[in-house]
Amino acid sequence: MTDWNQFETGLAEQFFLLPAGTLVTIDTKAPDTEPGFTQFAQFEDKVLAELGAYADLDRGAGLNAPAAPLVLAAGWQPPDQYDHSNWWVELPWPATSAVYRKLAEMVVIGLRDAFHVSSPTRLVYKAWNSKAGNRPVDLALLGIESQ
After folding, report:
1. Which residues of 95-111 are buried (b: 16+ CB within 10 A; e: fewer)?
2. Which among 139, 142, 146, 147 is positioned nearest to 6, based on CA atoms?
3. What is the mean pLDDT of each run of 10 residues along the chain (147 residues)?
4. What's the maximum distance between 2 C-alpha atoms anywhere in the chain?
5. Kind and range of the H or E element at 101?
6. What pTM was computed for the model?
């Protein structure tokens, strides 16, 4: 898959299918100079999503990061000194497909527009279910490689 629109659609559809206990990380392939990553934890009552850029984390830039206006406008909450070291959003679960479409859009804006990941082909994922012995979860709808 090389198209961000296809990735966004697949991500939204995949979110809708994930059971409680699923943890997902989507990162740039190593070695790479493109700094973005995102991660998700699906609990019994909420979804916690995070977005980050390694350079921003290293500098602790948060709201002062060059990408901050784009990430804020997309709907992400800024990192804080207490609970969240990454950009984050918390959503009720189960969520509607419209909520997952919005979350997928937020992810794409963060990775593509704010952190300049050139293509979904630069991404890999890892997913597992903590409620099923950390068994790997296949996310075929993303159209990217697993780690």
Report:
1. beeebbbbbbebbbbbb
2. 142
3. 89 94 92 77 94 59 70 90 86 92 96 89 96 96 94
4. 40
5. helix 97-108
6. 0.90
